[in-house]
Write a structure and sequence with these properties.
Elements lengths: L2 H17 L6 H8 L3 H5 L5 H23 L6 H18 L2 H6 L4 H4 L1 H27 L9 H21 L6 H16 L3
Helix pairs in contact: 1-2, 1-4, 4-8, 5-8, 5-10, 8-9, 9-10
Length: 192
C-alpha cells in the first residue's frame, strides 16, 4: 500500500467515525483531503475498494503487530491481558478501525466486504486460540470449556466493549472500562 493510499484510508476512517457509512463517499473523501475526486480514483476504483483496503490493512497490521508484541515465555493469562490491553490502546489511537468494523450496514454492502470483515475476525481468532490451548495444556486455563468456545467468548466481550465505546462516540473510558472487563473475564477462565 502506498503512502497516498494510507492517507486516503485515514481520511475515509475519519469520515466513517463522524458520519457513518452513509457519509463515506468519494466526494467527501476528496473534500477531507482537499483533493479532486479524480485524484482519489487514481488510487482506488470505488468506495468499496477503499473499505476493503481498510479492512485488509487492519487484518495484516493486527497480525504483524500482535505477533511482535506477544511475549511467548509468560503465562497465558498475562499474554491475554497484554494482548487485549495492546489492542485497546491501538484502537484508541486509531478509532476509525472500530468504525469500519462496526459501521451499520457494512456487512450488507457486498460479499467482498463481508469476507474482509470475517478475515479480520479470523486473524484475532488465530492469535487467541494458541494462547488458550497452551494455557489449557499448562493447567492455567480451565479445560471445562473447549478452547474455541473460550476464544469466541473473549472476542464477543471485546467486540461489545468496542461497540459500547463507538456508541458513546468514543467518549467513554475504553482503556479503563475495556481493560477491566477483559481482565475480569480472563480471571473467570483461569484454572482455579
Amino acid at each position: 500500500m502506498t503512502n497516498r493510499q494510507l492517507e486516503i484510508i485515514n481520511a475515509a476512517g475519519k469520515i466513517l467515525s463522524s458520519e457513518g457509512l452513509g457519509g463515506l463517499t468519494i466526494k467527501n473523501i476528496a473534500a477531507e483531503m482537499q483533493f479532486s475526486e479524480s485524484a482519489i480514483y487514481r488510487h482506488f476504483k470505488s468506495k468499496e475498494e477503499i473499505i476493503l483496503a481498510m479492512l485488509n490493512f487492519l487484518a495484516v497490521d493486527m497480525q504483524e503487530r500482535c505477533q511482535r508484541f506477544l511475549i511467548k515465555d509468560t503465562s497465558a493469562q498475562l499474554q491475554l491481558e497484554a494482548l487485549f490491553e495492546h489492542q485497546i490502546k491501538h484502537f484508541k489511537a486509531y478509532p476509525y478501525f472500530v468504525s469500519v468494523v462496526f459501521s451499520d450496514g457494512l456487512l450488507e454492502e457486498s460479499d467482498r466486504i463481508n469476507h474482509a470483515v470475517k478475515k479480520v475476525m479470523n486473524v484475532k481468532y488465530q492469535l487467541l486460540l494458541p494462547i488458550i490451548e497452551k494455557g489449557q495444556a499448562a493447567g492455567e486455563i480451565t479445560n471445562e470449556i473447549p478452547g474455541h468456545n473460550i476464544v469466541e467468548i473473549l472476542m464477543g466481550a471485546f467486540r461489545l466493549q468496542m461497540f459500547k465505546w463507538k456508541s458513546s462516540r468514543f467518549t467513554s473510558k475504553i482503556e479503563t472500562d475495556g481493560n477491566e472487563i477483559m481482565a475480569n473475564l480472563i480471571s473467570l477462565i483461569a484454572h482455579k
